[in-house]
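note to self — DONT lose this again. spent like an hour looking for the file last time. sequence + predicted structure for the chain T wanted, 262 res
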Amino acid sequence: MTDPHPQERRRRRLREQPVSRLFPNMVTLAGLCCGLSAIRFAMTEHWEMAVAFILAAALIDGMDGRIARMLGATSLFGAQLDSLSDFLCFGISPALVLYMWQLHEIQGIGWAVVLFFAVCTALRLARFNTGLFDDGKEPWEKQFFVGVPSPAGGILSLLPLIISLQFGQGAALVPAVTACHMLLVGTLMASRIPTYAGKHIRIPHEHIPQFMIACSLALVLFIIEPWLFLSGLSLVYLGSIYFSVRKWRLLKGASKKSQTAE
């Protein structure tokens, strides 16, 4: 016996979704709200809260994808929503926070830097989205991102503001230096420079205790001196780019040698 209403039943199945499949998207929307809230606090000159909400957005961005994979709820819709949230949280929000904090002092040039940073973030995310469908990557290439990821770029761009929060307004960089820093970070995001992909970093078994101790000390420093910790972490990340490029070249050279030998 055939079903007299197959299309209606199919539409009902498409409409009904378990809550577990919607939860990762709700987490992503929470991150988007954090990015918007950072702009709101910048408008009232609560710079600590503005930076804190962008950091919260970055933490949430690192969680939603993993939650989706744990729950078996990955979807193309979720990937696109995450990308749109990243553009707002790490391309628009940090740029506007820095503009309201300092870049407005150099007027049109400051706004041009904001636009440049936002465009670089959009280009970086567009390239990342298209790379999701690239099945031609070699296994070793998956250890690296192409360019600085947008969450890291958003936090790196805030380094001048974070330095002023740690050492006081008297230690704040001049607007021209902040603008140059933003241009550099935006360029790194839009570039093809290989950077380490954190989820593919492996810790040797014999070094796990030392790694856990180092993480504990870092957590204590973050609790005691959050701005100093973030300043140091940003500088360490910038320094790691040199080593990621070096390792990428070594792996590429080894891959070419193995292909030639075959």
